[in-house]
Amino acid sequence: MILDPFKLTDFKRLLSLQLAPYSAVYYFEKLDSTNQYLLDHKTLGAGAICIAQEQGQGRGQFGRPWISESKENLYVSILWEYQKPMELTLLPQYLALAVVSALGEYGFPVNLKWPNDIFMQGKKLAGLLIESVYADKVYVVAGLGLNICMGTGGVDKISQPWVDLQSCSSATIQNLTRSELGSKVVSAMLFALKSFSSDSKGFINTWNQHDLFYGKTVVWEKNGIQFQGLGKGLALNGGYSVFVDKQIKVITHSKLKLRLR
After folding, report:
1. How do the domains of the chain map onto residue ranges?
2. Which residues are paired to 80 by β-bridges?
3. Which of the residues 4, 10, 79, 153 has an alpha carbon 20 to 30 A from that of 208?
């Protein structure tokens, strides 16, 4: 069951069975931030994985805190390398789709919320944080926080509706272990990182099929003024397309929070 303890040996064995392109797994009971660990150790090489049972300073987009209580959820980051030049604009959406596809294999009814969130039952289930360093190569760290079994610790600090996997009654999770789930999701992320390129745009139609807002009226605010339009999916530049004032406009600033009307 996904409530069972995470087992590192099972996780690594299952990654190998899936032929996942990883190099090593760095496991910690507690760490400030899995993303920061790999950013500080970027010479570990492509495919290095960092997993923590608890994060003391977990973070999401724009430095916002990510509540990371002990042994409740999945906190994982992956290091990857690309040759310069490399355009990473669509990488968050490419990775998010990979995670959604992996979770969908177990029957979890998940959706994508621009720019890089994963929702289930209209509430936030997971978030991705992509950070990069341009040096001799392009070093990318892709972090994922996935709610598996939220306890009571720290939930009062979460500012938006959330959901966890254990609360889903429609998925086939009776015999799903935490190690199997983790290996499936991480393997999907690894293969996505390996296959991504600056020309990766063919996935956009599939992304839109999972889009939480597609074909629905969405609202957002800019400079204190509220706007609304019809969601039209992911744009080629990584922004979000909306139909407003009889034309398609693209929202490119990810701090502009979209929500359903």
Report:
1. 8-205, 213-260
2. 140
3. 79
- Structurally, what CATH architecture does the domain formed by 213-260 represent? Roll (2.30)
SS3 content of the chain, % helix, strand, coil (to 5): 25, 30, 45
Tell the burial category of 32 from Cβ atoms under 10 Å away from its Cβ (0-12, 13-18, 19+): middle
- Per-residue pLDDT, 83: 93
Strand order in the sheet with 247-251: 247-251, 240-244, 225-234, 217-222, 259-260
The CATH architecture of the domain made up of 8-205 is: 2-Layer Sandwich (3.30)
Q: For residues 212 and 114, what is the distance between their CA atoms, to the nearest angstrom?
A: 8
Q: What is the mean pLDDT of residues 172-196?
A: 91
Distance CA 36, CA 33 (A): 5
Predicted confidence (pLDDT) per residue in 55-98, tens digit: 875 555 555 555 445 557 899 999 999 998 899 999 999 999 99
Are the CB atoms for 115 and 108 separated by under 8 Å?
Answer: no
**146 class by beta-carbon count within 10 Å (0-12 exposed, 13-18 middle, 19+ buried):** buried
Coil, strand or helix at 100: helix
Distance CA 197, CA 89 (A): 10
- 8 A C-beta contact, residue 117 and residue 63: no
Going by C-beta distance under 8 Å and a sequence separation of 6 or more, which residues neighbour residue 146? 73, 74, 76, 99, 118, 125, 126, 165, 185
